[in-house]
Structure formats: structure tokens, C-alpha cells
Amino acid sequence: MALLPTYISTNQKQNNMADFSKQYCQVNNMGFDGDFDVYEEWSKLTPGYGVACICEGFGFSMIAKEETGDRVLVLVDSYKHGGKWMDFDEMYLEAKLKS
Length: 99
Known about the structure:
Blueprint: E1 7-8, H1 22-27, H2 38-43, E2 50-55, E3 60-65, E4 72-76, E5 84-87, H3 88-98
Parallel strand pairs: 1-2
Antiparallel strand pairs: 2-3, 3-4, 4-5
């Protein structure tokens, strides 16, 4: 998927030690609402665009809206996935099933 330029979310707090999405916090019962909501950030995007949002828990560094506008994609940065775009809905469902 070729993405157009990204922007930095204004909803994220600056200089945090770690950032966690609302969805990660809910699945893992972390006791707080998280630093940002994946679906809220995604809803602001134009199809084909992405936003830099780091979720230390799920291990992604960007949220993007597929060019068709249908899927929530996240860029997972890990040795296992090596910078791979993944469907967030599938990732979130898998995490819920494991909890």
C-alpha cells in the first residue's frame, strides 16, 4: 500500500515514556483509558493516509486508512513482522480472545 504523507496526531501527549492505545489498555485491564483511540485516529484520516501513533503494547508505530477506506491498518515494527502492515481489527480481536 502506497501511503501519502503522514501527520503527527495532536491527541497524543508529548514526551511519554510509553504510549498505549485505548484498545490495548481495555484488553489488558491496565486501569487507564490509554493515550489515544485507534478508531478515533483512523476516522480522521483520508483514504491512503496514515498518522504516526505508537502503541508500545501492540507494537505498532502508525495507523493508516486503506485506499478504499475500509480497513484500519497498523504498521507493526518488530523482528517477528519486520515492518509489516497488519489489519488492526484482526489484531484486536485476537488480543481479546487471548485475554
